[in-house]
């Protein structure tokens, strides 16, 4: 039997502010996830390129919904829409 693994895999890089933004929302929504740190060298990021079609991080794969996406703003919106409580908690945004 497989031990429960988080449905979400986050491809990220150390000290990447866009990745931290996604991590912040994952933590805020109490979503379990697995981190995969990609190669710092852009040209070596074949793993993330294979899954998302781009070499940029962050990128997520959500096995629960079958969604794969990159672009931190899109990921944040997706996480809030899919796993948020519907209260529409804004991220320090305008009222
Ligand atoms: N617009 C993207 C920017 C992401 C981004 O620039 N990530 C950097 C790491 S912090 C990266 O992967 N850079 C690789 C590259 O631009 O080639 C987002 O918001 O996710």
UniProtKB/TrEMBL annotation:
Top-level taxon in the UniProt lineage: Archaea
Domain (GST N-terminal) ranges: 6-87
Family matches, as InterPro entries: GLR_AS (IPR011767), Glutathione_S-Trfase_N (IPR004045), Thioredoxin-like_sf (IPR036249)
The protein, known as: Glutaredoxin-like protein
């Amino acid at each position: 039997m497989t031990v429960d693994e988080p449905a979400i895999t986050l491809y990220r890089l150390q000290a990447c502010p866009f990745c931290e933004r996604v991590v912040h929302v994952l933590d805020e929504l109490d979503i379990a996830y697995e981190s995969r740190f990609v190669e710092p060298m852009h040209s070596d990021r074949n793993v993330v390129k294979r899954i998302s079609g781009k070499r940029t991080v962050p990128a997520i794969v959500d096995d629960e919904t079958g969604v794969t996406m990159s672009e931190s703003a899109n990921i944040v919106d997706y996480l809030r829409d899919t796993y948020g409580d519907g209260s529409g908690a804004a991220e320090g945004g305008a009222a």
